[in-house]
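Hi all, posting the design record for the shared folder.

TITLE: backbone redesign
STEP: 1 of 1
STRUCTURE INPUT:
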């Protein structure tokens, strides 16, 4: 049994796509595994800390886990990143090509 766990651990270490962890986190969230979902959203954030969706998802998982302070922090970070992204898009639209 230990060898299967090691293989899973090694395979996870090789994954560098934050969407993998985001999608798996959503699956865990949907079955009520909030700790597992939070862990996966944290991995996604560690791979792409500028994606507001990962903070939003982790915020929902934290809220469901009764971590209201953590949820609020994640929702605020998500909002801040969305605003930053919107401003960047506007600035590049105004820049002559």
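Okay, here is what came back for every position:
SEQUENCE:
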């Amino acid at each position: 049994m230990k060898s299967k766990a090691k293989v899973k651990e090694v395979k996870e270490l090789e994954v560098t796509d934050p969407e993998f962890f985001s999608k798996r986190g959503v699956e865990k969230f949907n079955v009520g595994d909030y700790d597992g979902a939070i862990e996966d959203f944290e991995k996604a954030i560690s791979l792409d800390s500028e994606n507001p969706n990962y903070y939003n998802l982790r915020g929902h998982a934290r809220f469901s886990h009764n971590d209201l302070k953590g949820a609020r922090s994640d929702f605020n970070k998500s909002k801040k990143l969305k605003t930053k992204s919107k401003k960047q898009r506007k600035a590049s639209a105004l820049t002559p090509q």
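COMMENT: Residues 10-75 form a domain with the Serine Threonine Protein Phosphatase 5, Tetratricopeptide repeat fold (CATH 1.25.40.10).
Let me know if anyone wants the other runs.
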